[in-house]
Specification:
Elements (H helix, E strand, L loop, with lengths): L18 E4 L8 H16 L4 E4 L3 H13 L4 E5 L11 E4 L4 H7 L3 E4 L7 H10 L5 E4 L6 H11 L4 H5 L1 E4 L2 H13 L1
Length: 185
């Protein structure tokens, strides 16, 4: 099993906390995934949700951030690089020692797009280091469903509370509704 000790989990805090995101890195992602990322950013901004993230790497992360900004949303990028600033309209916070952990310490929920095999370990590390905030796994093509059993059985190690924080949704609206129900419980 993945965990040998009790899982430390962040307290559920409501939808008013910023959202984070996990998207595939790299330049070899499909136009369909980039479009989904842009739509996700627009959707979160339309709900009044601020996005907090480390410096986006690759087209998919940039698409999500610019999607939010395109309709007047707020994006805060936490960066270790004082010169970072490629996304116009985003707020930058630099000078932090570890951008990934600093960014995900502020979020109340994380929106996730289907990973490539190279992204799986990074997704898992972020989720566990952030103390298991709710993950909304957008799954329009059932790509995440293949990982559902693995995540629930191995990663959550039988911990029902951690497994309840996994939301698998085919659409943004479905994910938001399930997240709202989880936060209200």
């Amino acid at each position: 099993m993945f965990f040998k000790k009790k899982i430390k989990m962040v307290k559920l805090s409501g939808l008013d906390r910023p959202a984070g995101f996990l998207v595939p890195h790299g330049e070899d992602v499909s136009a369909k995934l980039i479009s989904l990322a842009h739509s996700c950013g627009e959707f979160l901004a339309s709900k009044g949700t601020q996005i907090v993230c480390p410096t986006p790497r690759g087209e998919t992360g940039i698409a999500l951030a610019t999607g939010a900004l395109s309709i007047g949303g707020k994006v805060k990028i936490i960066s270790t690089d004082a010169e970072a600033g490629p996304i116009e309209g985003a707020e930058y916070q630099s000078g932090v020692e570890e951008e990934l952990n600093s960014a995900f310490a502020e979020v109340g929920h994380i929106w996730v797009l289907p990973p490539s095999m190279n992204d799986l370990q990074r997704y898992l590390e972020v989720w566990t280091n952030a103390a298991f905030p709710p993950l909304v796994c957008l799954d329009p093509n059932n790509e995440f469903m293949l990982l559902r059993g693995f995540v629930e059985d191995v990663v959550c190690d039988g911990n029902a509370k951690a497994a309840q924080r996994l939301i698998f949704a085919k659409s943004l609206d479905e994910g938001w509704e399930a997240l709202s129900e989880l936060m209200a419980a």
